[in-house]
Every structure is written in C-alpha cells, then in structure tokens.
Design a protein that fits this description.
The chain is of the alpha+beta class. The protein contains 9 helices and 16 strands. The strands form 2 sheets. Strands 2-3-4-1-13-16-15-14 form an 8-stranded mixed β-sheet. It has an 8-stranded mixed β-sheet with strand order 6-7-8-5-9-12-11-10, covered by helices on one side. It comes from Hibiscus sabdariffa.
Length: 363
C-alpha cells in the first residue's frame, strides 16, 4: 500500500544594508549644515522640528523613495511573520484534533513464509491479509492481533530475490505484551527461535521482560503485562536528541508524551510517545544513548504508517514543525489511496494515510 512496500530499488526578507542608516544620517547632516550656511534664522526651527519633519522634505525625493521602500519592506516582513505565526498556530491546533492512530509498521524480510510461520506460531499473531505484486517484484503480508481498522499490525515486505537485509543499529526492537514471559520464551525455544535475554526484571524497574530475535534478526521485547487489547505494543527507535524528537512528535504528529525515564546508571533515556494509554495502544519508544547523536539505519526497517483525516494539512504541519516531506500529499497510482511521506529530525520515515482511503483499501 505504501511507498516502502515497493521494491527495494524504489526506497528513496529582504536583507537591508547596514550602511543605509549611515548614509541617511550623512545626508541629513549635510542638509542641516547647508541650512545653517544659507538660512541661519531657520536653525532653531530645524532643531525644534527635526524629528517631526518628514524625511522626504529633509532629504529629497530619491531618499524618500529609499525610506519608503525600506519602511514598506519592513511592514511586509512583519505582516508575513504574523501570518506565519497564525498559520503555525492553526496547523498545530488542527494536528491536535486530527483523528490519528498508528496503523502498522513496515519492514523487509528475506523469507516471507518463514517469517509468517514464526510470528503465528511463536508470537501468536494472525495473518490479516496477503498480496503479491509480480510486476513490481514484491509481496506483502499483514499480521497482527486483531482487525487492521482497530489494531496495530506489521506489514512484512519481501522483495523478489533479496534474502538478507542490514538492520543497522538505529532500530531497537518491537514490543509484544505477554501474560507470562517464561512460557513465551519456552515456546520460542521449542520452535527453534533465538532467545537473546532470558526472562527477568528490566534494568532499573520491576517489569519482567525477555528478548528474542525473529528469523531476520529483528529484536522483539516480550513484556509481561496484564491482558491488553493491543499486544503489539511498541516500536523502539534510537534518536540523537531526545528533547528535539519529543518536541517534533508532539507538534508535527500530535502525539502525547506518555512518560519519560532517565537511566543514568546505564546512560540512556527513554520517552514513550503515542495517541493513547500504553495499556491499550501501540506506542513509539524513543531512546537516547548518552553522547550518541547518529545511527546507522540499515535497509531493513522502513517506516510507521499513521492514519489522518487530511494528508494535505498533515504535510503542511510537518513542514512548519521542521520535518521533511519526501513525498508530497496525493493519491498513489493505481489504488488512489492518498498518502504523504516525511522524515523526522533523525531521518526516520513515517507515512500518513488518509483514514477513509485506508478503510476502503481494507474492504
């Protein structure tokens, strides 16, 4: 449906011179001096009225044009700044009231059927839909824990003939809520899966967690929690400036900062961002590692898709908030689903999808 599901090959005031006041002062001084020389009786009047005499009379027609143009330019600039401020305020208010939800996360795998088998047997996901696009040489599979119109999902992409991807070190993990982490790990082991961290308390907390890897090396964090309507609960990405990222996702994406935690003992800080409480919605977990400002994103992880009522207004708000729009809003060829694609300050890609078009696509 989205751009990154395509084959890998498609992954894609006026300035014023500071000399002007000096020149005008020089002209004014010359004019006053000339008046002194030729009309001594006007000295007092000039001193008394100097600040009230229009510069057009004092300096002549050419200077008047200069000051008039300068004054008009300054006024135009002020008006433009005021208009921009109102535009930003309107855009931010619209973002807050937009109907947004994290729809799915997109990434590439080397063996679609093998990955589907792992997710269904080890993680308990269900195949929601599949499609093959032979003319574009790729296939998709959508998996999750409930219907796509109400649940977060994974969109797996297989590009013909590509069996391995570089995950990089910027992508962190996906979070899956489980009733019992130990039982979940035992199942993964029984199915031949890889466990990279045995169940135990999270560093600096009490939640029991475990880490596993899927066949392509993507990491999944298993979080022991009470039953939840959204077991697919997290996407963790690493960022170089946490405050900058929080500000961007709040303003441009309309997300809430659900919680943040600094872990100085382990030299990292996390922030949970999302559109609702963690126990009922998938969230974006942003992680800042002390002193690390850049990461290798690899070519495996692609993007998160988010629903919106208006991709055109969304794109404008992203631009106003400092984001980069890499695909202008509009319909996709063939299916007419309207989308826009952007990058956050760290270069992580997101796709906003028209809500009505998305529901039509599911039909």
């Amino acid at each position: 449906m989205l751009m990154s599901t395509l084959p890998l090959a498609s992954v894609p005031t006026m300035v014023f011179s500071k000399k002007t006041p000096l020149q005008s002062n020089s002209l004014k001084h010359w004019c006053i001096q000339s008046c002194y020389n030729h009309h001594p009786s006007r000295r007092l009047a000039l001193f008394q009225l100097g600040t009230a005499i229009p510069q057009s009379q004092l300096l002549g027609a050419n200077a008047a044009k200069l000051f008039g143009a300068e004054r008009n330019s300054i006024e135009d600039s002020k008006s433009e700044n005021i208009a921009t401020a109102f535009k930003e305020e309107e855009a931010l208010n619209w973002v807050k009231n937009d109907n947004r939800r994290m729809l799915h996360v997109v990434y590439r795998v080397g063996d679609l059927e093998k990955t589907i088998k792992f997710y269904t047997e080890c993680l308990g996901m269900k195949v929601l839909r599949k499609r093959d696009i032979p003319e574009e040489r790729y296939s998709n599979a959508f998996l999750g824990y409930g219907p796509e119109d109400s649940h977060f999902a994974v969109e797996l992409t297989y590009n013909y003939g590509v069996d391995k991807y570089d995950i990089g070190n910027g992508f962190g993990h996906f979070g899956i809520a489980v009733d019992n982490a130990s039982k979940a790990v035992d199942l993964v082991k029984a199915k031949g899966g890889k466990v990279t961290r045995e169940p135990g308390p999270v560093k600096g907390g009490n939640t029991t967690i475990a880490f596993i890897e899927d066949p392509d090396g993507y990491t999944f964090e298993l979080l022991e929690r009470q039953p939840t309507p959204e077991p697919f609960c997290q996407v963790m990405l690493r960022v170089g400036d946490l405050d900058r990222s929080i500000n961007f996702y709040k303003k441009a994406f309309g997300m809430e900062l659900l919680r943040a935690k600094d872990n100085p003992e382990y030299k990292y800080t996390t922030a949970m961002m999302g559109y609702g409480p963690e126990d009922k919605n998938a969230v974006l977990e942003l992680t800042y590692n002390y002193g690390v400002t850049e990461y290798d994103k690899g070519n495996g992880y692609a993007q998160i898709a988010i629903g919106t009522n208006d991709v055109y207004k969304t794109a404008e708000a992203i631009k106003l908030c400092g984001g980069t729009v890499i695909r202008e809003p509009g319909p996709l060829p063939g299916i007419n689903t309207k989308i826009t694609v952007c990058l956050d300050p760290d270069g992580w890609k997101s796709v906003f999808v028209d809500n009505i078009d998305f529901l039509k696509e599911l039909e």
